[in-house]
User: What shape does this take?
Amino acid sequence: MRLPCFKEHQLSTSAAHYTKRLALLRAELASRQLDGFVVPLTDEHMSEYVGAYAQRLAWLTGFGGSAGSAVVLAEKAAVFVDGRYTLQVRDQVDGALYDYCDLPAKQPTDWLVAEAREGMRIGYDPWLHTRDWVAKMRETLAAKRAELVAVEDNPVDAVWQDRPAPSLAPAVPHGLEFAGKAHEDKLSDIAEWLKARGADAAVLSALDSIAWALNIRGSDVARTPVALSYAIAKADGTVDLFIAPEKVTDALRAHLGNRVSIRDRADFAQALASEYAGKRVTVDPERAVAAIFEALGGGGAQIDAVRDPVVLAKAIKNATEIAGHDAAQLRDNAALVRFLHWISVVGPQGSETELSAAAKLQSFREATGKLIDLSFDTISGAGPNGAIVHYRAEERTNRAIAPDMLYLVDSGGQYRDGTTDITRTIAIGTPTEEMRTRFTLVLKGHIALARALFPQGTRGSQLDVLARRALWEAGLDYAHGTGHGVGSFLSVHEGPQRIATFGGGDEPLKPGMIVSNEPGYYKTGEYGIRIENLVLVEAREVAGAEKPMLGFRTLSHVPIDRALVDAGMLDASERAWLNAYHAETLRRIAPLLEGDAGVWLSQACAPV
Assistant: This one.
């Protein structure tokens, strides 16, 4: 049995520069009389994807995933990742420098309980951690008679000599034709929510919340169209927007109007500390960092710790946003079908690689003339690399796509009218019976979730088992959630809704929410399988129902590789679903294709 935290050394390239960086950080900590420091992968907005300036974990350790953290002591260090990255972290991070710890089995607090000694001073950046994290870590260290110490400036930044500056790209208006609701109306809704709570103001620190509430977008974070800023929404319907002056254009000022006061982002902390004495201010304990709570509390504000009022409103798409998603899906799916036709021709020749295939897929999306950015770095995994859940191909790991392997491609685009995310697993050449069997088990789970009917109030955690049941019955599983929310030209991973039995999934699903349906299976060292579509929660009429019922409408329409389907494992209703799905895919996508791609689509969508 593999323990959740252990040491090994599998790095395939020299880690000398990471050794030097770790030594520099340790010297910096010693100069500050600190015995350790916690390095999370986030920014001052608790973002999942962060700008280059905030990539401290990657700079220090080499880990390139989108979630994780490290703890550095004078003589030991550890890196913490969840099940999506257990293979990737061992490939990218030197096990001679860091213990590998698997979340959630081993938390940083657990590791420090074992490693911290009496009198130690462990540093943290209060702009990179939540208040709850700070309280728990402080309690943990106190039990060891050690101390958690806030730093005024981040010691990683002090030794990162070529650290990029935060982006100063302009923030831009997001038109009503895409947003579907004026920002003035959204601000009025927030004001009514504040009045109902007896609050004077709400701190908005999550970048996608600010973008949605003010109908603005930006290019400060790769793959997520947000602008670095903070906002304080008030009960009178006005907002203070804290943003770097260089990012403000005349067009932005005209769009925001006189209900939005534009202030320098550098003044945010001081405003919290000096302008809200005696006032009741709501702050999201999950999305706002500890420094925000400390500034407000230190200034005499009454803090109401509650979820950001934008989060749920943003998750429930309006009619304009849903129509935009449909349009974005249609063009994006057609681009992916062109790619699948292309890979069906060139894949068996062995002339393409993970990187060249990802570039080709991006070119098909760019050819739509509507692509703003990818929605995340394309996961292009051939053979054993497909078993790395959040794999990202690079020159060092780039593998040829060759016959008799599975190729997994998880990708998406950012368009003004919608954000897409879809995964297909493709047989290059002839798949083995085991590949077909396990693919079909994943497909059965995908179909079960796609067809689900459930009463209003059902949570994603209650549906997750539907996607896993067929795999469980074969003694198999996958170490990631089954579904995540998706934004409207915003974050490809959006809460609060999820379909998962761990790490979330407790938000009731509501009509208008978009989630992914993506069960998978991964055989380490051999291949990976995932089938992902986006689905929309909609009301359903069910004869005799005693309460309102909901179901999913599938938004993604791209063929599922029939060469990997063992039709004998599907029951009649599952075969009917697959054939209907392919018929609808052909109906939607065929008019957008020409020549050989159209012929290929007709064959790919033939009934099983």
